[in-house]
Amino acid sequence: MTHRRCWFGEYTCDSGQCIQAYAVCNGKNECSDGSDEKRCLPTDFVRCGSGSLIHRIEVLSKQLPAFVI
Questions:
Q1: What is the pLDDT of residue 61?
Q2: Cystine design at 13: which of 7, 31, 60, 66 (Cβ 3.0–4.6 Å)?
Q3: Which cysteines are joined by disulfide bonds (predicted)?
Q4: Average of per-residue pLDDT across 3-25
Q5: Which domains does the chain have, with CATH numbers?
Q6: Which residues of 3-40 are buried (b: 16+ CB within 10 A; e: fewer)?
Q7: What DSSP element (H or E) covers 62?
Q8: Are strands 66-68 and 45-48 parallel, antiparallel or unpaired?
Q9: In sequence order, what are the beta bridge partners of 47?
Q10: 45-48 and 53-55 strand pairing
Q11: Torsion (CA) 9, 42, 30, 28 in degrees, nearest 10
Q12: Which pLDDT score is estimated for 55?
């Protein structure tokens, strides 16, 4: 499959697919190969009171209480 060159504001997946740059490290695989989530830093996630990890965007969107790990 041939992919186009990504535009400004887009992220180039390892597969060559283009996705919106804001979708990188959001806890969801937008790239068909998952490469948009492979290089995320631990600061992209927070630890909930229950001990589970959740992506920081989910915390912000739902205003959940959590601790940054």
A1: 57
A2: 31
A3: 6-18, 13-31, 25-40
A4: 90
A5: 1-38 (4.10.400.10), 40-69 (no CATH)
A6: eeebeeebbbbeeebbbeeebbbbeeebbeeebbbeee
A7: helix 56-62
A8: antiparallel
A9: 53, 67
A10: antiparallel
A11: -130
A12: 66
What are 9's two structure tokens? 């504001």
Q: Is the pLDDT of residue 64 over 50?
A: no
Rounded-to-integer distance, Cα 7 and Cα 18, Å: 8
Q: How far apart are CA 11 and CA 48, in angstroms?
A: 29
Taking CA 65 as the corner, what is the angle to CA 37 and CA 61, rounded to the nearest 5 degrees?
55
Range with top average pLDDT, 10-14, 40-44, 48-52: 10-14
* Dist CA 18 CA 35 (whole Å): 11
Over residues 19-37, the mean pLDDT reads 90
The confidence score (pLDDT) of residue 27 equals 79
Cα separation, 22 vs 8, in Å, equals: 12
